[in-house]
Amino acid sequence: MKSTKLSVPRVELIAALDAMSRHRRRRFISVLPVWLLFVAETGELVLQEDKGLVHARLPAQGDWPAAGATVDLYMLRGAARNVADGEIELHVVAEGVLVPTDRGYVRLNLLAFGPTDIRSRPPEAGGAERRLGVDDLPLFRWAATRHAV
Q: What does pTM read for this prediction?
């Protein structure tokens, strides 16, 4: 059976995650989704931040799902720092991504982000854009249609 895992140089992964975490954002966030996509043709692991503002490319070997995996940048960086020098292995399982360490493993939960995530909405009729948030929840959309009738 073929294992679904990647091997990435530890020093390069930590340097890329440190650089990505220092990117200036409008507000502090405790969870920063980062999409991990493996390009087999070039042997590179692409790390891309939400909305594509920051990305990094690292050499990698192995096999990875075509859709990639999205994990928290801060958790991945912490797991990478707990691995001894050399290569970091990233194993994909149904529940998330496992990173083996000297004391066991760290499980990184999968987050909703990637090529299928809806990032923006087209403008509504009349050119006014609707504010995303509570009004966008299914129950509120349903209620708005009930009151419009």
A: 0.71
